[in-house]
Design the sequence.
């Protein structure tokens, strides 16, 4: 039986060419005037998950990605 992809996870995470999971940071859509420039710049970059419990849990939500 085919597994279903969790659509909410598919919109938030992407699989890289090497099989890692790329996660995007939240908190950069509004209320930006109170955040300093360094913090906003740090929110632009993505996180690469290579191993660990979080990597495994997200991997189960994205079976075919």
Sequence:
């Amino acid at each position: 039986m085919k597994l279903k992809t969790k659509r909410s996870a598919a919109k938030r995470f992407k699989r890289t060419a090497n099989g890692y999971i790329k996660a995007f940071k939240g908190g950069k859509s509004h209320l930006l005037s109170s955040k300093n420039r360094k913090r906003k710049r740090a929110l632009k970059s993505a996180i690469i998950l290579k191993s660990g419990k979080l990597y495994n849990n997200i991997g189960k939500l994205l079976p075919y990605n």
Q: What stands out?
A: The longest strand covers residues 13-15. The chain has a mean pLDDT of 95. Residues 46 and 53 are 18 Å apart (CA to CA). The first helix runs from residue 7 to 12.
